[in-house]
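re: ur question from earlier - yeah i can do the single chain one, its not a big deal. heres the input i used so u can compare w yours
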Amino acid sequence: MDGGPRVPEQRRSDATRDAPGTPAPGSDLRFSVLGPVRAWRGGEPLATGSPQQCALLAALLLREGRTATAGELIDAVWGDESPQQALAAIRTYASRLRKALGPGVLVSEAGGYAIRSLSRDALDLAAAEELWSDAEKARQNGDLCQARALVNKALGLWDGEPLARVPGPYAETQRARLEEWRLQLTECRLDMDLEQGCHAEAVSELTALTAAHPLRERLRELLMLALYRSGRQAEALAVYADTRRLLADELGVDPRQGLAELQQRILRADPDLAEPSAPAAEPASTPLRPAQLPAKVPDFTGRAAFVTELSDVLSSASSEAGTGSVMAVSAVAGIGGVGKTTLAVHVAHASRTSFPDGQLYVDLQGAGARAAEPETVLGSFLRALGTADSAIPDSLEERAALYRSTLDGRRVLVLLDNARDAAQVRPLLPGTEGCAALITGRVRMVDLVGAHLVDLDVMSPEEALLLFTRIVGDERVAAEREAALDVVAACGFLPLAIRIAASRLAARRTWTVSVLAAKLADERRRLDELQAGDLAVKATFELGYGQLEPGQARAFRLLGMADGPDISLAAAAAVLDLSAEATEDLLESLVDTSLLESAAPGRYRYHDLVRLYARACAERDELPPVEREAAMSRLLDFYLATAATIYAIERPGDRLVDDLEATEHPGLRFAEGTAALDWLYAEASALLSCVRQAAGTDRLRRAVDLLWAARDLAESGANAHQYEATARAMCEATQAARDVRAEGRARATLTNVLLVSGRIQPAAEEARLAMESASAAGDSTASSWAAQDRGVIALHQHRYMDGKVFFDQAIEGFRAADNGLCEATALCNLSRAYMGVGDTMKAIEFAQRGLARHIEVGSTMRLGNGHYALGVALITAGRHREALNQFSEALTIFMDHRQRLWAGTTHFRIAEAHLAARRPAQAAQHAEQALALECIGGERMQGTVLTLLGHALSALSQADRAAACWREALNLYQENGAPEAADVRALLTPATAA
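and the output i got, formated as tokens:
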């Protein structure tokens, strides 16, 4: 029964078992913790004493024979508020319990206490666990009736609140854990009730449970299913609406995927939801078990105390949560190169058996200029755990919530390497016991609540010499032991420095250890002092760098100049001005020296400190200095030329590519659009980093044009936040440089991303400034684009005649430039201006002209916009069937070209057409898809979709859900200052009165 309730984690002890053939002293004792803490001998109750004495008894019972020290028991009973005589009190309580329970039951050992010699079912919790285990087996064997009976019997062992009225933090933690398990068992039993057709009977119990636990989504899901199978579909959907609204109000999240899918299945009357004809065994699910840990180093050395300490903390996650912690979190801090990652990976591998459901790993790049964004990491983790891309939400909060839900009930280890700070880490932490997180970073994370902090220092001289010997070989070190000690001392006993120096020596059989020691004796090649800084291992890096061949050294220096998390082979070839084959040979040789890492086939990256050192070498050794600028210029040319090629593939007929800054270095070519888009999205971070790096240089104009050519990164929604930050940086840089041509284009890119997200007012200001700068520079291309954007803004502001003026201006400019695709887009937008003033025939005419122009120039992705515009115009004319045909064409094109936001917007228009044609169910379905994909226009457009969904639900007689949608829309409109708020408020007036 994978996915069912997990038995509360307990460590079994052989000490609790009876010796064969020997009557145990406590074999006639019975204990209860699933209610008040009580004890019986035979059928006679025993006195358990004061509440504190009961707390002591509970703590010992739940340890199942394992010894608890006096200190642990004091913490369990009183926590941080223990009395001065706490130890004496513990001894008194233990003495009283020993007398009550009889000899040989409560024993003293190793300064603590334990309860031993009980029969296997002496504790009601143990009996419940056995019943659940038998129920699992029965259900797997297809005996649903027996499984249900066993779960009911287990639930019958509860007698009110677990550990009732028992004080202390330990009891509070255990009480919550046992109550959670009780709910899971109840959910499992109700699930089996529904499988056996007891739908009507389950409704009343589920109604009470959802009232008591309103945020528990599994109960809501079961209630929806019970109502639906009882023929109460509207109520089932209203439950979803209530749940969605409650989760949004209380937690700021949407319902989990399973609940949303059930709602969709109910909406379309999925026949698989019908009442089962006969109980069937639940199919075993096979969740993905990620195994992402990097390989551990075979010559791992020393650190025994740290390995033991961290292993113990991690193992506590899979044992009894007796310390009040819901999961194990350890954070290892230290200077760069001290071996944090090596230690963490070693410990993680050693602890794999404690985490059978998988291990996740990520390099958070915290020491670099651009640390990994938590939402990006969460997306990667969710995919590794088996979540489909379509089910992964966009916001950080929603992804974090889904991530924690996905990990619930699993035992997964998460290794977060190279973290920047606690704020970056918090969204990536699991939320339940059984999981553990191991974190490395340079900053000691004192603000990470509940974390076990470890400060990793340099190695001891003995450990350092042992590591050096394992890499170089016993024979060479034994012959020159003193020289070897001089080497590791010169390395400051820093593991990374020792490893690099030893690897150099091991690769050069003609060198002696004394030669290496003599090289390190030069203080110019060693640390001036031991300190935690970016250049803390500079001397060791200098040693490795000094042994490089001239071509290797040049590659090492120049590649370190590029920002971004990594670099592709093709981009590296551009930096070095070499062929791909020659570049690969150089880079692979650098990988062999440990000065470069192979992130993936065809991709390379530096360790953070090595990158800083490489840049220092470039500034010191790259003569003449103009070579550094030339390398960065070639990289920018490569990205710009490649992005321009992709732009031309996606937008044939758009002459923008002819008006971009000229490039001297070529880019990549692609046989078809899929490969081109794959490259663009894979290179997004590196490409945008290259744009930002050009600020303040003479590469500024090309950088702005690269940002313009890569606008798909913003319109698709895939990299909108990073794109916007880069666009703002370029606006500031171009303004500081007083380059009006570049400023006009930079502001045009920022206008576009603001329009996509629905921020109309700031978009209007940027579009105005873009037009002013473009006009001042005589940049007709940017002027036409700015006019187009200002027309779109005017439409949003219901200034339709102003919009017409701007679109006429844009059309004139695009025609003059023979830019057929942009002319087609402007014609389609002009159609919307005529719609705004009520001239439907003109609207259809210009939409048809725009579509025809798109077809004439061979548009691909933008052809979808042509079909979309004509569909919108046809809706206005009441020609719904024709409109739906146009939207269907548009939707196919947008999905093929990964334009998620445009696809969502098209779903909204399809919903609009269905609603106008009095098909509210189809309208609601497409409106929900629009909400799931999101739309061009951001939160304001989300409000529009919700308003339409409310109308569809109202037509479906789901008044409560409709009102909930309208309330949500009203909030969005009010937050964004949208005039539509008044219309929605009017819709809510009768609903509120009712």
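The CA atoms of residues 569 and 842 lie 53 Å apart. not sure if urs matches, ping me
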